[in-house]
Amino acid sequence: xxxxxxxxxxxxxxxxxxxxxxxxxxxxxxxxxxxxxxxxxxxxxxxxxxxxxxxxxxxxxxxxxxxxxxxxxxxxxxxxxxxxxxxxxxxxxxxxxxxxxxxxxxxxxxxxxxxxxxxxxxxxxxxxxxxxxxxxxxxxxxxxxxxxxxxxxxxxxxxxxxxxxxxxxxxxxxxxxxxxxxxxxxxxxxxxxxxxxxxxxxxxxxxxxxxxxxxxxxxxxxxxxxxxxxxxxxxxxxxxxxxxxxxxxxxxxxxxxxxxxxxxxxxxxxxxxxxxxxxxxxxxxxxxxxxxxxxxxxxxxxxxxxxxxxxxxxxxxxxxxxxxxxxxxxxxxxxxxxxxxxxxxxxxxxxxxxxxxxxxxxxxxxxxxxxx
Amino acid sequence: xxxxxxxxxxxxxxxxxxxxxxxxxxxxxxxxxxxxxxxxxxxxxxxxxxxxxxxxxxxxxxxxxxxxxxxxxxxxxxxxxxxxxxxxxxxxxxxxxxxxxxxxxxxxxxxxxxxxxxxxxxxxxxxxxxxxxxxxxxxxxxxxxxxxxxxxxxxxxxxxxx
Lengths: 372, 162
Hints:
The structure holds two protein chains of two kinds.
Chain A: H1 2-14, H2 20-57, H3 83-93, H4 104-121, H5 139-147, H6 150-160, H7 164-195, H8 200-209, H9 218-234, H10 246-249, H11 259-283, H12 304-310, H13 315-335, H14 343-371
Helix pairs in contact in A: 1-2, 2-3, 2-11, 2-13, 3-11, 4-5, 4-6, 4-11, 6-7, 7-9, 7-14, 9-11, 9-14, 11-13
Chain B: H1 2-22, H2 26-46, H3 50-73, H4 90-110, H5 124-135, H6 137-158
């Protein structure tokens, strides 16, 4: 609760309000608003990025007509810069359709619950050493816990729609998301074993003292790839998008949703991509450390002012964003490279490949830590 | 402020718990149970038991509740209120409920509650970990063996060709 407490004291200092309850509400509302804005802006940028990347991969141009205030780039990368903004306005003004036989209340509730999971997760995600909404003792465990609740929203959304495609999609999504949580948790456990702390600050501090965690040992190297492929499956993106496979299930559990509540699904999907990339960056790729601090070898030290120039409160968040954008780009790259997996292949990959390897990783890293 | 948040949490937990029992639609009950479980996690946070709160969310919300909804979804005739949540044998059931309530009330009344005034908790998770791995390693391992046996048993039972 440190950051909210700090904000509380700050507001108390400058605002002429006597009632502490009102100040508390303000101190909680401001971070909440910031998190919501981050999610919205992230979705806006990521959707545009995705369309342009997919266009590039397929030798097309992508959106190139909608500009902002007459600013149009045509065939350039920023050609359709206003496209996602126009799409967002379109989504918000669309009719909100609820089928006659659907479970009305659950259908209204479900998208908000799916949205809740990434929203709560953002609270514990840092951008820099103390740039975080609330610094929990249980950092990574909290992130794993609250990101696991979104699956209930998915199941409820699919069930409430009263549509066979939705129910199939929801069943697939539930099986997939529950299964892939296990390799994700096991891969992150490596960092917890080595660092001995669940707080992301401590994990990045360990990487500053030693080396980026991906280079800790061969096992950490494997764990990074298990983590990354598993989170692509966890966020239901191609090649693991069987819950919403357009060619067989229309749109899976999202089929019956429209307008704002469908926009919430979209917002959550891109927010989840951002979250898993930030966690991968913090745990495996050195967090806010610059690329000059990949390995901290004794006797081969770069001068301290040089390092401080590249890793400070201004450039730190920039490195995080750079690494995160790269990971998100790789996810988009996957999407246009690999064909969709079958359900049985997906389960085979998780239960017979990733989980045994992740378990072996945990054992071997413990031995590694005992030896070195 | 803490009192206000606590009251809100308590009201949410109790109302949703009632809703779980009263609702005739199983999926609606599961949704209500969601709020109850989240409320309980909130209570753990009020007790500075952050690890237990996270475990509550992971195990009950992310695991058991998903399993319940999954089980309800594959049941046939789910919209029929007669299935699953109708009330039968109300007399005997109320006797059982009153019996359990009286036991719980007796225990709650007779326990000497230690009310401290801690306002800041230290790292609970490190203590829990060292206790589990040093003092209580045998029960801990026994429970994990039990869970493993349940897992293998479930996999064996659900195989069709056995």
